[in-house]
From TrEMBL:
One of its GO terms (molecular function) is DNA strand exchange activity. This is Transposon gamma-delta resolvase. The keyword DNA repair does not apply. It comes from Paramagnetospirillum caucaseum. InterPro entries: DNA_bind_recomb_sf, Resolv_N, Resolvase-like_N_sf, SSR_resolvase. The lineage of its organism: Bacteria, Pseudomonadati, Pseudomonadota, Alphaproteobacteria, Rhodospirillales. Keywords: DNA recombination, DNA-binding. CDD domains: SR_ResInv (cd03768). Residues 2-150 form the Resolvase/invertase-type recombinase catalytic domain.
Length: 228
């Protein structure tokens, strides 16, 4: 019988703070010692989201490939190994079929051993997945609110804007005027490449694809503006 541990953090910062990899490892070592187990190896998943199926993670895949009948897997918490109830239940059935025991410290131990443990495991897997969905919804809501208030959400700053010290988007008058000019040129039937060439001559180095994205982001053509 081999005893393996599995730990995971989704970001590099979590590797050192909060539920760090070191803290998780110490929890596994303490549990193994209390139950007379010898922890042979710990599979450490660094910077991988729990929403990714266990088998598709680098260390998760290695762990599953190494398991044999009679082996034991230890993990500190349900959400360190699974955030999807479907993935959790699929792997629980897989491990039981292989004759492998799965111990989750936050659930009190072996979740493959009896019906009560499986029931608790199923409920908490669904709860973990629901919480992940709520987090995703909150992020979407916050981003939508930030966008409406003209806040910078990261990535490349759009043409015509700059980011101020408070993280807000502020118009750049010269580039805003250039946007109006490009829209007007498009309304007048000029090709995107021609617009890009003319704007480059005015000091705005833009490709025809860049021009297309800028015009599309500002409502496309057919605006009632005149080229300057």
């Amino acid at each position: 019988m081999a005893v393996y541990g599995y730990t995971r953090v989704s970001t590099d910062r979590q590797a050192d703070d909060g539920e760090s990899l070191d803290v998780q490892r110490r929890q596994l070592e303490g549990y193994a010692l209390m139950h007379g187990m010898k922890l042979e190896a710990v599979f450490v998943e660094r910077g991988v989201s729990g929403s990714k199926p266990l088998a598709d993670r680098p260390e998760g895949g290695r762990l599953l490939a190494d398991l044999k009948k009679g082996d034991v897997v230890l993990t500190p918490k349900l959400d360190r190994m699974f955030r999807s109830s479907l993935d959790a239940l699929d792997n629980l059935n897989l491990l039981k079929g292989m004759g492998v025991s799965l111990h989750m410290l936050d659930l009190g131990g072996d979740v493959t051993g009896n019906g009560i443990s499986k029931l608790v495991f199923t409920i908490l897997s669904a709860v973990a997945e629901a919480e992940r969905d709520r987090i995703r919804e909150r992020i979407v809501t916050v981003k939508a609110d930030q966008r409406e208030r003209g806040r910078y959400l990261g990535g490349r700053v759009p043409f015509g804007w700059r980011v101020d010290g408070d993280g807000g988007l502020v118009e750049i008058a010269e580039q805003q005027a250039a946007i109006q000019t490009m829209v007007a040129m498009k309304n007048n039937g000029l090709a995107l490449r021609t617009i890009a060439e003319r704007m480059t001559a005015r000091g705005f180095k833009l490709s025809h694809e860049g021009v297309k994205k800028i015009i599309s982001a500002h409502g496309g053509a057919n605006r009632a503006v005149s080229p300057s």
